[in-house]
Amino acid sequence: MKDYDEIVKQIAGCTLCALSERRNRTVPGDGSVNSEIMFIGEAPGYNEDQQGLPFVGAAGNVLTELLAGIGLRRADVYITNMVKCRPPNNRDPMSGEIEACSTYLDAQIALIDPKVIVTLGRYSFAKFFPGRTISRERGKPRMWRGRMVYPMYHPAATLHNPRLRPALEDDFRNLPQLVAEVIALPDDTASEDETPPEQQMSLF
Questions:
Q1: C-alpha pair distances (Å), 178 with each of 26, 38, 127
Q2: What are the residue ranges spanned by the domains of the chain?
Q3: Whole-prediction pTM value?
Q4: For domain 2-185, is the CATH number 3.40.630.30?
Q5: What is the pLDDT of residues 13-31, one digit of tens each?
Q6: Which of 6, 15, 19, 98 is the most buried (most CB within 10 A)?
Q7: How many CB atoms within 10 Å of residue 178?
């Protein structure tokens, strides 16, 4: 896709923040640009910086396993991060770095046009619903500008705290049904930043 290749090219040459000074490779995203599902994580780590692909380290193995558990491959979905370069020592991305990359992420969302955006962790969830905590909101799909946002824990969190793994597995199990229901929604579905609670889709 020509437009997508242009986004990748722009990311590769980006110098909008200091992360560009230390990167080995940019990590624009990976997967199907025609997918109904987009996963958005936090930031590349060491392995991602080396390979130029998202979620290829230990957290990536968790993500791949969870996808396989619902009959999906990485090639069936699109995977990206809030920022496209690795923060030093895998620290959390700073607000200025997230803001510098926001134009690229917004362009990816517009171009790929997913039905469901799965946010992995608090940083990507905060892009759509700032001020809300992932621990309270995970697993609760809600509309955002005509798309369904489905917040989940970041796979890396389950490596640090294995007790979170069952919750993440549960959220993944609900994903196919959510996608099917979103596809079936009428075209005039509410596009506000958040659907009123009485109109929210319930899977549980």
A1: 32, 13, 21
A2: 2-185
A3: 0.91
A4: no
A5: 999 999 999 999 999 999 9
A6: 19
A7: 19
